[in-house]
Design goal:
The complex is a heterodimer of chains A (about 270) and B (about 150). Chain A has about 270 residues and is of the alpha+beta class. Helix content of chain A is about 35%, strand content about 25%. In chain A, the strands form three sheets. Chain A has a five-stranded antiparallel β-sheet with strand order 4-5-8-6-7. In chain A, strands 9-10-11-12 form a four-stranded antiparallel β-sheet, sandwiched between helices. In chain A, strands 1-3-2 form a three-stranded parallel β-sheet, covered by helices on one side. In chain A, helix 9 runs antiparallel to helix 10 and helix 10 runs antiparallel to helix 11. Chain B is α+β, with helices and mostly antiparallel strands. Chain B is about 35% helix and about 15% strand. Chain B has five helices and five strands. The termini of chain B are far apart. The chains are: A alpha+beta (about 270), B alpha+beta (about 150). The structure holds flavin-adenine dinucleotide and FE2/S2 (inorganic) cluster (2 copies). One FE2/S2 (inorganic) cluster binds next to loops of chain B. Chain B: This is 2Fe-2S iron-sulfur cluster-binding protein. Chain B: Keywords: 2Fe-2S, Iron, Iron-sulfur, Metal-binding. Chain B: Pfam families: Fer2, Fer2_2.
Chain lengths: ~270, ~150
């Protein structure tokens, strides 16, 4: 179990970031479900409650999601159920149970870049930007590629478009971590295929996405894109599945994801 | 630090440690319906409500309960008894250790979902594990309770 020596509730982001940088063991507290699983000796726990970062709203053509928003809010908020075919609600709905999702936060889930993350894969298939206090605003893919650096995730920005999307995960049992997860999206015939829980962190299959975008989705290109995704990304082995199994799953789920996007009502 | 909260409609001021979890605080103040089993967010036995939303009290810091309304099953005796009677009539209870957390989730579901389908009920309650019953009796009881049988 982790321990917290001191606790602060900063009044603004600058103060929160200053305290975070002051000492190596100063730590932001999200919902604490993941922190609780470890043994970290936290010097100062930084509780963001006073910063009012728990919201989902529309702003300047984007859907803005505050860092302290719960995964349950992602699952139920009308802006997210009504956009992108509900791909974000779909991605979080199998994470443990309702009580758990009421407590855990978006900021921690994205900032921590967990390989198994369901949410990151779905966000990666959309036009998502991450806003960090120090490093500023950047595409989610760039954030995932950066070396880990202490910072404070403030909010997410998702471009509000008519992007069609689909999310699929394969689990050995309900509410376990995914063996593999896949999100596929399309806007104006430009496709994005993202695969996570490989078991390393989610990535976009650039070559397979480009193939579909350039040649259009026919039964041949769909097969080829699914195959190419499984070849251009790397897969690993852990207790949930082998690399070979994941590669085979990837091909099947990507194909299914593309077909689901094509079947979306507004197409 | 000191927190002030409403517990089952009563305002209290409690002293809590920075790294104390709500399940421990509640139990130390006599709310023994709140059970702890996995202590890793997986079983749902510790479910209570915070401002009407079900939460895992084993994984919520006590300080987060400051200025909130916390409800345990002790605060809902009428509703809990009504559902518990259906549960036992359906043979859906064995050791009963999971029941307080499970009932808190069922009551939260009743407030949140209108005429849920069987799939929606099962999905809503995925976070409540029971080592004894096999869930079929519980499902029958819920359907009777919600009038969706
Ligand atoms: C038992 C269990 C099963 C899980 N299963 C799944 C699953 O199947 N799929 C899935 O996608 N996820 C899963 N998760 C992860 C979960 O969804 C959350 O992502 C995770 O618990 C972190 O959220 P939290 O709010 O609890 O973070 P915390 O535990 O509070 O924090 C985690 C880390 O993030 C840091 N942090 C918090 N907020 C910020 C911020 N705003 N900026 C910068 N850093 C921050 C903290 O300092 C800490 O290092 C699981 C977690 C647990 C405990
Ligand atoms: S004791 Fe809290 S979820 Fe198991
Ligand atoms: S009745 Fe024994 S754990 Fe549920």
């Amino acid at each position: 179990m982790f321990t917290i020596l001191d606790l602060v509730q900063p009044d603004n982001l600058a103060e929160a970031y200053q305290i975070l940088s002051d000492k190596r063991n100063n730590t932001i507290l999200g919902g604490c479900a993941f922190l609780k699983m470890g043994k970290k000796r936290i010097n100062t726990g930084i509780d963001l409650t006073k910063l009012k970062l728990n919201y989902i709203q529309e702003k300047d053509g984007f859907i803005e999601i505050g860092a302290m928003t719960s995964l349950r809010d992602i699952e139920t908020h009308p802006l997210l159920t009504e956009h992108y075919n509900g791909v974000l609600p779909q991605s979080v709905r199998d994470i443990i149970g309702v009580q758990f999702r009421n407590g855990v936060t978006v900021g921690a889930s994205v900032y921590s870049r967990y390989g198994f993350s369901d949410l990151i894969t779905a966000l990666l298939s959309l036009d998502t930007e991450v806003e960090l206090f120090k490093a500023g605003r950047m595409p989610l893919a760039d954030f995932l590629a950066r070396p880990k650096e202490k910072d404070l995730l403030v909010r997410l920005w998702i471009k509000k478009t008519k992007r069609q999307a689909s999310y699929l995960s394969f689990r050995n049992s309900a509410s376990d971590y995914a063996v593999l997860n896949v999100a596929v999206s399309m806007l104006n015939n430009r496709w994005t295929i993202a695969v996570g829980a490989r078991p390393s962190k989610a990535s976009i299959a650039i070559s397979a996405s480009a193939l579909l975008s350039l040649e259009g989705a026919t039964s041949e290109t769909i097969e080829e894109a699914a195959k190419r995704t499984s070849e251009e990304l790397s897969f690993g082995t852990n207790t949930r599945g082998t690399a070979t199994y994941r590669k085979a799953l990837c091909r099947a789920l990507v194909k299914r994801g593309i077909m689901e996007v094509l079947a979306c009502k507004s197409n | 630090m000191q927190i002030e909260l409403t517990i089952n409609d009563k305002v209290v001021k409690w002293e809590v440690a920075n790294d104390e979890f709500l399940a421990d605080t509640l139990r130390s103040h006599g709310f023994l319906s709140v059970k702890k089993a996995c202590d890793t967010s997986c079983c749902g036995l510790c479910t209570v409500w915070m401002d009407g939303k079900s939460m895992l009290s084993c994984s919520v810091l006590s300080l987060r309960a400051h200025s909130k309304k916390i409800t345990t099953i002790e605060g809902l005796p009428k509703e809990a008894e009504e559902f518990a009677q259906i549960l036992s009539a359906e043979g859906a209870e064995q050791c009963g250790f999971c029941s307080p957390g499970f009932i808190m989730s069922v009551l939260a579901m009743k407030n949140e979902l209108v005429n849920p389908t069987e799939e929606e009920i099962i999905h809503y309650l995925t976070g409540n594990l029971c080592r004894c019953t096999g869930y079929m009796g519980q499902l029958r009881a819920i359907k009777i309770y919600l009038g969706v049988a």
